[in-house]
Amino acid sequence: MSSASVNAIITDELNQARAVLAALERQEQELLDQLRRVHLARQAQRVKVDELVRQFPEPPISRLPNELLLRIFRLLLGAAILEDGIRPSDLQFSRKQGLAGVSRHWRDVILNSPCLWTTIVVTPVCRAASMKVHLQRSSQFTLDVEVCSWDHPGREDALKDLFAILIPHAHRWRSFAVRDNVRETYIFAILDELQQLSFPSLTRVSLSNVPISPPEELAPKPVFLHRGTCRRLKYLNLVGAFTDAADLQIPLSVTTLSLDFGFDLLKEEQHWIPALFKSLSCLQLTSLTLAGYIDISNDDLPPNSIQLPLLEKFVCNLSHPKALVRAIVTPSLSHMECRHPGSWGESPKNIFTGLESKFTGVHCLTLSELYPMLHDWDSTETKDICLAFPDIRHLILGNGDAELMLHPDVATHWQHLESLTIRSHSDGMDTSVLLGRLLPWLKRRNELSRPVMRVRFNGPMKGGAIWSLYGALHEVCTLEWSGVVYHPEVVICGTVGNEPNC
């Protein structure tokens, strides 16, 4: 074959290949143009879809501001409790994990909100890893530490290991609480671990079963009672068998104090109690709660010997309160509660006899468990209370106490009384006996043109009792029902001036 023929064949094949290539390039260009058109169409459709989605109303839970969402989370975490009422950190941790799985927004809020990680509950089931996560994510926020459920022996080492993690952060503790389900041996171990520490951020302390011992014993005393260790402490609650005033040197910074002496102190072991009560005059207390079996006389506490010029609230649950009530001077007092454990000793009669106008500033008075049926109570004692508290605006009574306080002979007192709350006991109330006192008392006040009384019932009550009270009282007062349970699954609450909504 000649060279001319070969060239011709190659030329034909080249022309064919170029034709195919040109066709493929045209096809490629067409496909690219189509891809660009598809891409532009996809973008336009995405914009349209996003625009249509934005036109839908946003779910309310997605519109919540972070501040409100945080409040909801804190309520949910506060509800993470077991049947015995404790809040274990691990249970709270799993609850946080569940909430974080709802959406990315929720997850970001939870992980980036130190305030959700500041409560640390030390229990036998608490894991060190969970505690470390709380300490890390709480950043430098102050901490609330609670110890509970250490009621089985032999776990001292585990408790110390957990406190070894917590102690380096003692400067961040805002509150510290030991509940009443912690054995004394564990409390000794805790107090021993806390010796020589200071708590510059601590403002609240609550200790139950405090194992305070006589000075000659070597058991550690609460470091929180050492002067200088808790300079910002404002709230102190102690429950224990105290044995000496030296054990209870209340820091001067405390403004809210609660002391429960329990039932174990014999009268001959209480010689130091008057000195303790008198030392309260050195504090700037605004709220004071005292409870327990304490038997002291006027000789131990002379009248007007305890000056509490800033005290606004006083809760007295002592077995023998008469001497103390006479001893305190409280020009700023506006709220007083007196719960008398009548089976412990002296009669509640005459506690307020001879104290006319002593508590003129008290506007809210709570009386409960005075046991009138045990002490031959009559209107004289009721009148003494009215004279001691002449300007009461809000009166709160137990069921049985209402029967003694609402005597028609004293209806002329308390001209400015606005509300009366009657709390029923677990077994309900005898409405016939109550109405026999309450109805004449209200009618007598109305006859004297006193302001219309707001009467609130609170606590367990049978269905028939509710309607009996409403039928008898709705025309002579304004009725309110708050937490009145009359059926296992029905609660009446918050109705004012209307029929109960069953």
Write the topology of this structure.
Blueprint: H1 3-55, H2 60-63, H3 66-78, H4 89-100, H5 104-111, E1 119-122, H6 128-137, E2 143-147, H7 156-166, E3 173-178, H8 184-194, E4 204-210, E5 235-240, E6 256-260, H9 273-279, E7 287-292, E8 306-307, E9 313-318, H10 322-327, E10 328-329, E11 335-339, E12 364-368, H11 379-388, E13 394-398, H12 399-405, E14 419-423, H13 431-447, E15 454-458, H14 463-473, E16 478-482, E17 484-487, E18 490-492, E19 495-496
Parallel strand pairs: 1-2, 2-3, 3-4, 4-5, 5-6, 6-7, 7-9, 8-10, 9-11, 11-12, 12-13, 13-14, 14-15, 15-16
Antiparallel strand pairs: 16-19, 17-18
Which key terms come to mind for this protein?
502 residues, alpha/beta, 15-stranded mixed sheet, two-stranded parallel ribbon, 19 strands, disordered C terminus
Architecture overview:
The protein is of the alpha/beta class and 502 residues long. Helices cover 36% and strands 18% of the residues. The protein has 14 helices and 19 strands. A 15-stranded mixed sheet has the order 1-2-3-4-5-6-7-9-11-12-13-14-15-16-19, covered by helices on one side. It has a two-stranded parallel ribbon with strand order 8-10. Helix 3 packs across helix 4 (89-100) and helix 12 crosses helix 13 (431-447). It is elongated. The N and C termini lie far apart (114 Å). The model is unreliable at 81-86 and 486-502 (pLDDT under 50).
